[in-house]
Structure formats: C-alpha cells, structure tokens
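Page 42, continued from yesterday. The earlier attempt failed because a stray header line got pasted into the input along with the sequence. Redoing it now with the clean sequence only.
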Amino acid sequence: ETPPLWQAVFCYPRGWVNTGSPHEEEVSVLFQQVVQTDEAIRKPDPIPVSSEDERNALLQLESAILANKATKSDLQMKELNFEKDDDSNGHIDFITAASNLRAKMYNIEPADRLKTKRIAGKIIPAIATSTAAVSGLVALELIKVVGVCPFQAYKNCFFNLAIPIIVFTETAAVRKTEIRNGISFTIWDRWTIHGKDNFTLLDFINTVKEKYGIEPIMVVQGVKMLYVPVMPGHVKRLKLTMQKLVKPVVNKKYVDLTVSFAPEIDGEEDLPGPPVRYYFAHENN
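This time it went through. Structure tokens are written below.
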C-alpha cells in the first residue's frame, strides 16, 4: 500500500504553467532517504523572542517585499477546476493524502481513496472554510499596508459562508485621545526615548518634554511607582540613573513605562498618555 506521505510528496504543484512532471523513479529515490536523528541529544533551549525582535523581522519582511521587482508576467499561474472524476489530475490523490496526514496527527481513522472520492462532491465547502477566508482577507489588507495605500482603500469584512453573505464596509479612523495643546495619541501610538548608562530620571523627564512638548509628572513601571512627586523621597530619585531605578532584565534592551502629565488647571486629574518605551542605550550604539 502506498504510504500517505509518498502520495503527498508525489502530488507536485500543478498550478504553475509549463511545470514538468517528475518521474516516479526519481521521487522514489528521494523518498527512501531518511534523516537520522539522535534522540539522546538534548534539544537546545528555546531562544526568547521579544516584541522588538518581531518588529525588526516585520521591517525586514516589508523591505524584502518592497525590493521585489516581480511583475505579473513573472507569476505564471493558472486556475484549476476541481474534478473528482478525472484520475489524471491528481486532485483526489492530493485530498486523500492531505486529509490522511492530518488524520494521522490527531489519531483519526484514515480514509481510503475510494471513500474520499465518494464524498469529494462535498469537499469544497470543507476546504473553503472561514479560516481560509479570513487568512486571505487579512493578507489583502497587509498588502495594502506594505503598499502604503490611502486610508480609503482599507475595508472591514463581515461574512457568513453558510448563507452565504459577504459585506465590505469602510473602516473608521482610530479614535484619538487629546492630551492638551493639540497633542494627542491613539491606541496604536507609543513614544520612545533612547538613553545611555548615566541617563537619570530627570534626563528622562526633560527628554520627553523636549521631544513631545509636554512634561511628565508621574512615571510608573507596571505596579512600581518610579516617580510620584507627592510621595516622600521621590524628589531625590530625579538624580538616580534609569539603570538603577528600572534594573533592566538581561538581554532586554528596553522597558515600557506608564507616564502621566500635568493638567492645564491645578486640581484636575492627571492627563493620560501613550506608553513610553525607554531604551537603555542610544539607537546608534
């Protein structure tokens, strides 16, 4: 009996134009090759990935996409019409192999080719699931982001594949929170401050004021109050370095702080602001 893995390997991509068919003998040689691993060897500890690493990875991906000079003529693709009764197109073979591989992962009883073919008329609704639709729609919006499309190009989508109904609506601008004097922020904003080894709390406050035009009156890290003027002894902290106050974690280049600002009129509540990310070293270091 042909293993499901062999079938999956042999179902080569048929969507490309002028794609040559592989010889069964050539694929058979590759199938016999097995990678031997030593289970006794201890696996390396997972490398922690910070949000900054993820951001850098996205920036690299964006640069790669923008640098791609591929044209429509380079994308030599063709449409495929699903046909369960044509054994030469490999459609039933692929569906059988793919579904059995998934069944093996979840300890589900596999189905033979005949059973798969018998229910193939209903397989399209099972493949075109909500997950696939959402993935495609999200990918379209990401392409617009990378392409720096105008705001009007972005769309929200509401759909129900069972009815079916698909409705696109125009997106609404993100709500802005006004601080004062024309200074505002959204839920997507984050202010950044780059420091150095001898960067004090007072330097941090002054840098925020110079860069963003408003002076902080309270600095908090999580549940730890770094600077609250009304608290006894906190004024003395202005001369302490950020390294001493925050105590950075190993291999972490920054810390996220919550900062409040003084109201225009004394006696009113402190004004909120966006998260402030403080980098322990300057961006050029």
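Notes: Residues 128-170 form one domain.
Reminder to self: strip header lines before submitting.
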